[in-house]
Design goal:
With 146 residues, the chain is an all-alpha fold. It has 5 helices and no strands. The radius of gyration is 18 Å and the shape is flat.
Amino acid sequence: MYKQEEERFAAILRTVVSFLVAAAVPAMIFACFFVFTYVPNTLPKAIFGYLIIFAYGLLVAATHIIVLGVPTFLLGIRLRAIRWWSAIIMAFVIGGLPFAISTWPDYFRLGAAKYIYGFSVWGLFGASGGLVFWLLWHFWVHRESS
């Protein structure tokens, strides 16, 4: 009985770490994209800018995961529907959904093309985190708990 509880706790801890890593990956991609497009004058400015943008991206990604990702994950566990493609699709939707909701009033001003482009860009950030989460879930968390 004690061994089962210990294994369950280890699986929960691995899942939490997987969520944290899944939040860090899109934040790193976002920060790299920003630093490489901004091109600061000096290396210290680049490093400082990267760290600030990474921290902001990590906060946004962690909020997405806590508010939308964890309930989706629990539903996926309940339905036994966690697959690589379902993780990527749902993470894409989770990444783009806040953009879609927050810019919906500006839909007609932006136009459909810009609206879809914005949703897709943020969705791809989410999909990168979803892929990383699924890889960790499949090869580290789920494999060890089986």
